[in-house]
């Protein structure tokens, strides 16, 4: 009885080893190669200068960047040191950052040292600074959940979070922290 059990156990172990052998010998390089292929940009441009128009043929925005990487399959474009100029109905804004990602639905996410400068002379808010700002290019809206600094000719406002409509010129801080007025 013990010899029969030992023989059956041995046959079971051999059968399991034979069935599991391909799994243990499978190369992990195939998975890494697949991931590398997906994360490789379809197109890289340096010294990029691009102008975009909306459906009505009006100037929507321009972008200049040190480098642009297009990931067609993943649906986004990554920019290094971009400068976006957004052309609105009443005001034009220039937004720059260390990095930015533009998605196919025209949502632009700018990160690291983000500065939005109002190009309209005599505007109450001349500059918006934050670590990250999201811009909907089609609706001309800016949002941020980070600490934001708004500055103008005679003031500086600090707050947490931002919602801004560039067409109606309405800027709202989610949480106001501090305001400083300067002498004229």
UniProtKB/TrEMBL annotation:
The keyword Iron does not apply. GO terms for cellular component: outer membrane-bounded periplasmic space; plasma membrane. InterPro entries: LipoPS_assembly_LptC-rel, LPS_export_LptC, LptC. GO terms for molecular function: glycolipid transfer activity; lipopolysaccharide transmembrane transporter activity. It is found in: Cell inner membrane. Keywords: Cell inner membrane, Cell membrane, Membrane, Transmembrane, Transmembrane helix. It comes from the Bacteria. Pfam families: LptC. The keyword Cell inner membrane applies. Its main location: membrane. The chain crosses the membrane at residues 6-24. It is a single-pass membrane protein. One of its GO terms (biological process) is Gram-negative-bacterium-type cell outer membrane assembly. Belongs to the LptC family. HAMAP family: LPS_assembly_LptC. NCBIfam families: LptC_YrbK (TIGR04409). Involved in the assembly of lipopolysaccharide (LPS). Required for the translocation of LPS from the inner membrane to the outer membrane. Facilitates the transfer of LPS from the inner membrane to the periplasmic protein LptA. Could be a docking site for LptA. Component of the lipopolysaccharide transport and assembly complex. Interacts with LptA and the LptBFG transporter complex. This is Lipopolysaccharide export system protein LptC. It comes from Pseudoalteromonas ruthenica. The lineage of its organism: Bacteria, Pseudomonadati, Pseudomonadota, Gammaproteobacteria, Alteromonadales.
